[in-house]
Every structure is written in C-alpha cells, then in structure tokens.
Design goal:
The complex is a heterodimer of chains A (about 325) and B (about 300). Chain A has about 325 residues and is an alpha/beta fold. Chain A has eleven helices and twelve strands. In chain A, the strands form two sheets. Chain A has an eight-stranded mixed beta sheet, with helices on both faces. Chain B has about 300 residues and is mostly helical. Chain B has two domains: about 55 residues, no CATH class; about 220 residues, MetI-like fold (Orthogonal Bundle). In chain B, α5 packs antiparallel against α10. Chain B is flat. Classes of the chains: A alpha/beta (about 325), B mainly alpha (about 300). Chains A and B meet through α2 and α3 of A and α9 and α10 of B.
C-alpha cells in the first residue's frame, strides 16, 4: 500500500541574475506515497514555493532547475518538453495556490474555469465537462452549485474561491496535489473547513499531497512526514509525531517554540532572532549558524550535510552520532 | 444595467444639446461676415442688408438658434450659403469618404497593432520586442501626412496601378490607409504590449499554466481578454479623431472628406455647413463613447455588477 507517486532527488533551483547565481533550492530530496501528506515548513523565503515551481518545471525566469530529478509516476519531468509537461500539469499533478483572490481569472465564470481544465486534458464534449465541473463544485461543499457555476470570482468570498481552486485542482483526479499555503489568506474558521476538505480529498481520491505552510499548528494536523526548510535547504526530515516529540534541529525547535500556547515559560511569544540570509550573502558554514544559539566555531566554518538516521534526517553537527540531542 | 444605460443615453443627449448651443453661438460671434465675403469688398451696404435678410441673419440669435435646432431635429440642416445645396446631402457625401477611409485604415491598424503588441509582450526584453517597439515609436512620431508623401513618392509614383489621389478604385485605398493606419497601429501596439505585460505577471496566469492549458489558450483567453480594457479606451479615442476627418491625410491624397469639408467652410464662414458638420461629428463621438462604455461592461462582468476591480 505504499505506492510512490512522486520522487524528488537532489532538486536544485538557482536564479541567474546580474548579481550572480543565487541558489534558491539546494539539493532537496523526498518521496511521496499515495494517500500521504508531506509537509514543507519554513519561514518566508526558505525556498518552499520555489521547490514547488521546481517540481512543476515552472520556475520563473531568470531562474531555472539546475540539477536533480523529479519523477512523477516514474516519468522524469526535468527536461521534459513544455508541451508534454502541460499535459501533466492540471491532470496528474495539480496545484492549489496561496491567494484565492488573485489566482482565478476575474473575467471568467468559475464553472468555465473548471471545465476548461477538464477539456485541456480529456476529449469530452463541452457539455459533459460542464456537468462534471458542476459536480465538482458540489463535491467541494459549495452551496447552490448552479449559481456559483455561473458566477465570476468577484461575486464569491475568499473561502468559496479557494474551494473553486480546489475543485479545479481535483478535476482530473491528480496523483499529486500540491497545496502552496492554501489557507494563509483565509480566516480561521474557513481555514479549518478547507483543511478538512483537503484531508477528505486525500482519503477519497488517494492523491499524494505536498502541503506547504509556515504554520506549525497546521502542519501537525495535516502532514505525515515533515520537511523543514531553511534558506533553500532541507534541515530536518522526519515523521510529524517525531518532529513534535523530538525536534533535533535548532531551527525546528525554534519554530515549535514560536507556536503560541506551546510556550513553556512566562507566556511571552518566542521569536527566532534575525532573518533568513539573502541568497547572495550566504554564510560560509552552516546556513543557520548566524541565528543558532548553539553555533560553534565549526558550524561557522563548515557546512553540515543531512545527518542522522534514515527515519530522522537532520542537518546539524550536534546530531552527527545519529542520536537525539537532549532538549534544552 | 438598464438603469445605467438610460443614464448614459440621457447624459449623451445633454452633451449634444450643450455642443449645439456652443457651436451655434461661437460660429455666430466669430469675426468675419459671410455675406461680405460673398459679395466682395466693394459691395453696396443695401445689398448686404438684403442678402442678410434673405438668409434670416437679421433675426435675433436666439430665434435663429431655435429655428436651426428644430430644423436639425427633423433632418433639415439648412442650406449652404455658397453652394446652395442642402447641408445634409453635402455631409452625406463627405462623411462617406471619411467613413470608408477610417474603417479600412482602422481595420489595418487593429490587425497590425494587436498582433505586434501581443508578439512584443510575449518576447519581452529580447531583440524581437526591441525591434517592434522601436518601429512603434517611429510610427507614432512620424506625422501621417509626411508618411503619406513618402508613400506617394516611393510607391505611388513607381507603381502606376496604385493611384495617389482620390478613393475611386479599391487600389486607391492602399496608400492613405497605410499612412493613416500605421500611426494608429503603433499606438495600439504600445498599449497592447503594456497591458499584456501587466496581466502576464498576475497569479491567474500562473494558474492557467499550472492547469496545463495550452500556451495559445493561456495567451488568447486568459491574458488578452484581461488586457482588453485599456485597449478599448484607446480604440474609442482613436475612432473619434478618425471620424472627425483626418484633414492632412485627406488633403495630401485629395480626398473630399469631412476634414476637408469643415476646414474649407470654416474659412468661408459657411455657417450652416460647419454647424451641421460639427453636430454630426459630435453625435458620432458621443455614440462611440457610449459603445465603449457598453463594451467595457461586455468584456468585464465586474463592471456590469457594479463591483470594484
């Protein structure tokens, strides 16, 4: 029952600018099984969304995939001709965006936007596609589907629009569903509904889900495995339960301490000092060293690889022996 | 929508009424007496008085206006002082030329401008884009009468089949329509490119791509339609200037259109002709702007809904 739908190996993305080559995604590897969710967490600018663009072969210029491999159902996407890629996108691999307010065409009815996605991949009549679109609108829990079918996005609320985006992503039963911060722009009650919907989809459609967020609370609800990213690198990769029970990377520990209510001490919100380094000014050693409370001389000079056990990988010298480091 | 339409039509009527008053009174108070021009410098004052009386020019201005406007509404625009022909028939002839010239030129301009703009936008920053946009700037900067003369010299005089004056044969449209159309093509190309570039960076274009739509469909259905509003605005303004007659191009190619008619009769102080001409052009402008507003609503349902965008 563990069927691999997507395997990403050593994926790297870089931007070629006047200021030089900026590595944006550095050597990211993971495999995604059917009906499983892999969560990607990290602050803004950690390369989460660029990883997604790299998987879809949609890195905007002047960036491009510089290495690695992305296999979707055994087929290599890196270097695949654009026409063939278009056949995969929206059918075998689908994307739900962060901004439901702007990710739909403002001039086209919601129903048409869904049915054109179906028509792009299946040879069926327009009427059939419309029928299927209507059914999908109903499936994602929209009341009065007929009315919404003929509505333009401007007539709908953010939550409704996000449901339309989800219906659009689902319309060809994708093997892989990528959710790029799907609930960030929504308010909390709507957020909970959308998250439940995504989990239902995973169960009913059997898609593998890549779930990107900067919200550790959401990750805990959604993910099976979690990949913590920092400055374009994976710094920790482990099952979600283990991640919260025994986070090994200082960055992950910091992220968990940042969750309101997870605070052990005096109720004051914890913050990780500093910010993600600019890609044109990366530290020589460990990328997190400048913000790390445990950084040593070695951390500042040498860059750690992904260490630890296969079940719990971590990019930190403190874990070189493969055993957990005691929490402080 | 219905309410909006009624409001627009009433507004249009008001604007036309205002224009009729302004043109009438301005034309009647500018210096230069048509009768004196008609009879020459040494005319007998008595004779001038008689002619003025015959033409109804000795009545109070307000009465003259009322007579003219009621006539206008029933289709009687009066008679030319000099040619003694009904103004309406003169306008029909001249406007026929202008309209044919405008329609063909603008069709050329749209075909060229839209495709150049789209191609340039899709090739942003590379040699194709730079070449096309340099051409567009040249097209906007070159005065169309100059382009007209250049075309006459280099094409018209070389190929005898292509006439350099009038609009008699179909081949005669080539040069005037090219010289007029190029200028408009250039401005359409520029606005199309700018507008397309703005749309290209929007999230829903990324969505279209992530949905696996073909490039053609992404460009034509998702980008172009969203880029249309500013283009429609430009098209509307262009058409109003075109229908008012392109005086210079018309005179270079010896085409007796609206521009030529108006300029001729302004210098002659043939007031009924000028008044009629101005009113017809004004009505057309108002109609075009009304059509533009309706087109906005047709393209963008958000406007129809009265929502913000």
């Amino acid at each position: 029952m563990s069927e691999t739908v997507l395997s990403v190996e050593h994926l790297s993305v870089a931007f070629f600018t006047e200021r030089g080559v900026l590595p944006t995604v550095d050597d990211v590897s993971f495999t995604l099984q059917k009906s499983k969710t892999i969560g990607i967490v990290g602050e803004s600018g950690c390369g989460k969304s660029m990883t997604v663009n790299g998987i879809l072969q949609m890195v905007p210029a002047p960036g491009r995939v510089t290495g690695g491999s992305v296999k979707l159902g055994g087929e290599e996407l890196v270097g695949m001709p654009e026409k063939k890629l278009a056949g995969k996108r929206g059918s075998e691999i689908a994307l739900i965006f962060q901004e439901p307010m702007t990710s739909l065409n403002p001039l086209m009815t919601c129903g048409r936007q869904i049915s054109e996605t179906i028509l792009a991949h299946k040879r069926i009549s327009r009427a059939e596609a419309d029928k299927r679109a209507l059914h999908l609108i109903e499936q994602v829990g929209i009341p009065m589907p007929e009315k919404v079918f003929h509505s333009i996005p401007g007539e709908l609320s953010g939550g409704m629009r996000q449901r339309i985006v989800i219906a659009m992503a689902l319309c060809n039963n994708p093997a892989v569903l990528i959710c790029d911060e799907p609930t960030t722009a929504l308010d909390v009650t709507v957020q909970a509904q959308i998250l439940r919907l995504i989990n239902d989809i995973k169960r009913d459609f059997g898609s593998g889900v890549i779930f990107i967020t900067h919200d550790m609370g959401v990750i805990r609800q959604m993910a099976d495995d979690v990949m913590v990213m920092y400055a374009g690198q994976v710094v920790e990769y482990v099952h979600v339960d283990e991640l919260f029970r025994n986070p090994l990377h200082p960055y992950t520990q910091g992220l968990i301490r940042c969750i309101p209510g997870m605070n052990d001490s005096d109720g004051e919100l914890y913050i990780i000092e500093g910010s993600v380094p600019m890609r044109n000014a990366l530290p020589k050693g460990c990328l997190f060293a400048p913000r790390c409370p445990y950084a040593t001389e070695r951390c500042r000079l040498e860059r750690p690889g992904l260490l630890g056990t296969p079940a719990h990988r971590v990019r930190c010298f403190r874990n070189e022996d493969g055993k957990g480091v005691e929490k402080t | 929508m219905k309410q909006y339409l009624i409001k627009r039509v009433l507004l249009a009527a008001g604007i036309l009424f205002a224009i009729s008053i302004i043109t009438f009174f301005v034309l009647n108070i500018i210096p230069g007496d048509p009768v004196a021009l008609m009879l020459g410098d040494n005319a007998d004052p008595q004779a001038i008085e008689t002619v003025r009386h015959n033409l109804g020019m000795d009545k109070p201005l307000v009465q003259q206006y009322l007579e003219w406007i009621t006539g206008f509404m029933t289709g009687n625009m009066g008679e030319s002082y000099f040619q003694h022909k009904p103004v309406s028939s003169m306008l029909v002839t001249s406007f026929g030329y202008t309209a044919r010239l405008a329609a063909v030129s603008y069709a050329v301009a749209l075909a060229l401008g839209l495709s150049i703009g789209i191609i340039a936008a899709l090739n942003r920053g590379n040699a194709i884009d730079h070449t096309l946009m340099t051409l567009a700037v040249a097209g906007i900067s070159a005065p169309s009468f100059w382009v007209a003369i250049v075309l006459q010299i280099f094409i018209g005089l070389r190929f005898k089949a292509i006439p350099i004056s009038g609009l008699g044969k179909p081949a005669a449209y080539l040069l005037p329509c090219l010289s007029l159309g190029m200028r408009y093509a250039a401005s359409i190309a520029r606005i199309t490119r700018t507008s397309m570039l703005e749309v290209m960076n929007q999230d829903f274009i990324r969505t279209a791509r992530a949905k696996g739509l073909s490039r053609r469909r992404t460009v034509m259905v998702h980008m172009f339609r969203n880029a249309l509003i500013p283009i429609i605005t430009v098209v509307g303004t262009d058409l109003t200037t075109l229908f008012a007659g392109s005086m210079l191009t018309e005179s270079v190619f010896n085409i007796p259109g609206m521009g030529a008619l108006l300029v001729d009769n302004i210098t002659k102080r043939d007031i009924p002709v000028v008044q009629g001409g101005v009113m017809v052009v004004a009505m057309l402008c108002v109609l075009i702007y009304l059509a533009v507003d309706l087109l906005y609503a047709a393209v963008d349902p958000n406007i129809r809904l009265g929502g913000d965008r």
